[in-house]
Specification:
The chain is α/β, with parallel strands linked by helices. The chain has one domain: NAD(P)-binding Rossmann-like Domain (Rossmann fold, 3-Layer(aba) Sandwich), CATH 3.40.50. The chain is 43% helix and 14% strand. Strand 4, helix 6 and strand 5 form a beta-alpha-beta unit. Helix 2 crosses helix 9, helix 3 runs parallel beside helix 5 and helix 4 packs parallel to helix 6.
């Protein structure tokens, strides 16, 4: 992503140290390119954060090169489909082990230094599946909903320290984890898109990147604990 207009609007990000988690999946590649293009020092960590010790290690290693100004909590896992009756423990717990527990640990490890310095941004890449109930998506959407609730509460908790914690609740955005090219190319998907998304198109990864840049910049300093839907009107 090379849009010079975006770089110009978020020039206060130049030189900021940005930790991007799970950099090889979900929105990782797009965010790495966007924040790198905006002049940030991007630490793009590819590790799976399901291991309870991993988030602390990721934050400590990133901070060894300088204070972390922005954390992009990019956490994604293929959605598990199940009804309440046939839900098994393993797939239910897996959603929380990949989406909510790593988020709590990342935030817990990142906040002390941000609070001490009196500034910092945490941007969570979430899902609007938690905002609009759909059948057979309960385990995934519940974990995503827990993420959004966590963001709201932590955002309020740390706002007085000039630390902003916000989330992007996206859906129908092209990305390799949920909307890969082979799925998007099918007639069934195109019909679903027309039926469900008022914008009548699939969102571009750049749509997410621009919003993430805004939430990471000084332009969002008076926003904290906010969940921003980004789904072409799907969740309205």
């Amino acid at each position: 992503m090379t849009g010079t207009g975006i770089v110009a609007r978020f020039d206060d990000l130049v030189g900021k140290r940005v930790l991007l988690t799970s950099a090889g999946s979900f929105m990782g590649p797009t965010l790495a390119a966007a924040f790198g293009g905006a002049g940030c020092d991007v630490v793009a960590d590819p590790r799976d954060l399901a291991d309870p010790a991993a988030p602390d290690s990721v934050v400590a290693e990133a901070a060894a090169g300088g204070p972390i100004d922005v954390v992009l909590a990019n956490l994604g896992v293929p959605a598990a489909a199940a009804t309440a009756v046939d839900q098994d423990d393993e797939s239910w717990l897996a959603m929380f082990d990949h989406l909510i527990h790593p988020l709590m640990r990342l935030v817990r490890a990142s906040l002390p230094a941000m609070i001490e310095r009196g500034h910092g941004k945490i941007v969570v890449l979430g899902s609007s599946s938690a905002l609009k109930p759909i059948r057979r998506s309960t385990p995934y959407a519940t974990a995503r909903g827990a993420q959004l609730t966590y963001v709201r509460y932590v955002g309020v908790e740390v706002a007085a320290h000039n630390v902003q914690v916000n989330a992007i609740a996206q859906n129908y955005i092209a990305n390799p984890t949920y909307y890969p090219p082979e799925l998007v190319a099918t007639e069934r998907f195109r019909k679903s898109l027309q039926r469900n998304v008022p914008a009548d198109r699939l969102g571009r990864p750049e749509d997410t990147a621009q919003l993430a840049l805004f939430l990471a910049s000084g332009a969002s300093d008076f926003m904290s604990g906010v969940v921003v839907p980004l789904d072409g009107g799907w969740s309205v």
